[in-house]
Amino acid sequence: AQSVTQLDSQVPVFEEAPVELRCNYSSSVSVYLFWYVQYPNQGLQLLLKYLSGSTLVKGINGFEAEFNKSQTSFHLRKPSVHISDTAEYFCAVSDLSTGGFKTIFGAGTRLFVKA
Amino acid sequence: DAGITQSPRHKVTETGTPVTLRCHQTENHRYMYWYRQDPGHGLRLIHYSYGVKDTDKGEVSDGYSVSRSKTEDFLLTLESATSSQTSVYFCAISESEGLITDTQYFGPGTRLTVL
Q: What's the first-to-final CA gap in chain A, in angstroms?
């Protein structure tokens, strides 16, 4: 069965520093990959997604992610973070091995941006 | 923002009582989902629906049932609430990209406490 591993539960970083949030998933022939962000006391919202095509995906708020099929990874990056990026970030995968209509979420990574 | 509402937003109940949470959408999306969010677990799928009267179990369905009599409404029922069901519950909606679920849009969540 598909699984998603977010390698860091918490990532503290100083404002204006770069950040990478790591995500690995189980191997599958065809996957859709997502990063969602959750601000305090809110629901999740889409940050970016990979369905097909270019392996470098750009999302909102200056975030980007790279799909690496050989390493089954989809790491999220931002070159310079802001205080307002403090939130929880979830990596998610949809694929045919999970029935196509189910999305498997990672446990989340809490990003703390310090002044 | 996608038109998704959840009611109630907060509820405190006692062990052994039945509880029903409602999700309402105005987007006419085919797929609807119920997740629970607990620290360290991310989001776990409880049940989902792929059409009116068409539902299926997720990974943590024990103790929960669902119904979907109209496209816009998806109800989650805790048949006899237990303290282990204290959680934040999120509803989500989606359309599919071919055979695989595309972006999910989340409601604001319901915080349920079972005493």
A: 41
**Best residue of B46, B96, B104, B110 to probe chain A, by most A CBs closer than 10 Å:** B104
Q: Assign A5 to helix, strand or coil.
A: strand
Distance from A44 to chain B by nearest Cα, in Å?
A: 6
- Beta-bridged to residue A46, according to DSSP, are A36
Which residue has 């599958």 as its token pair? A28
Count Cβ atoms within 10 A of the Cβ of residue A40 and give its class: 0-12 exposed, 13-18 middle, 19 or more buried.
Answer: exposed
Q: How far apart are CA A109 and CA B39, in angstroms?
A: 11
Average pLDDT, chain A: 91
Q: What is the pLDDT of residue B100?
A: 76
Nearest to B107, CA basis, from B84, B73, B79: B73
The reply to whether A34 touches chain B by the CB within 8 Å rule is yes
Using the structure block, give the residue that is written with the tokens 């406490």: B113
The CA distance from B77 to the nearest CA of chain A, in Å, is 20
pLDDT for the residue numbered B80: 96
Q: What is the pLDDT of residue A82?
A: 96
Tokens of B40: 């360290």
Report the residue of A21, A32, A34, A44 to disrupt the B interface, i.e. the one with the largest count of B CBs within 10 Å: A44
Q: What pLDDT score does B1 carry?
A: 58
Beta bridge partners of A42: none
What is the residue type of B85?
Answer: Q
CB of A63 closer than 8 Å to CB of A78: yes
Structure token digits, residue B61: 């369905």
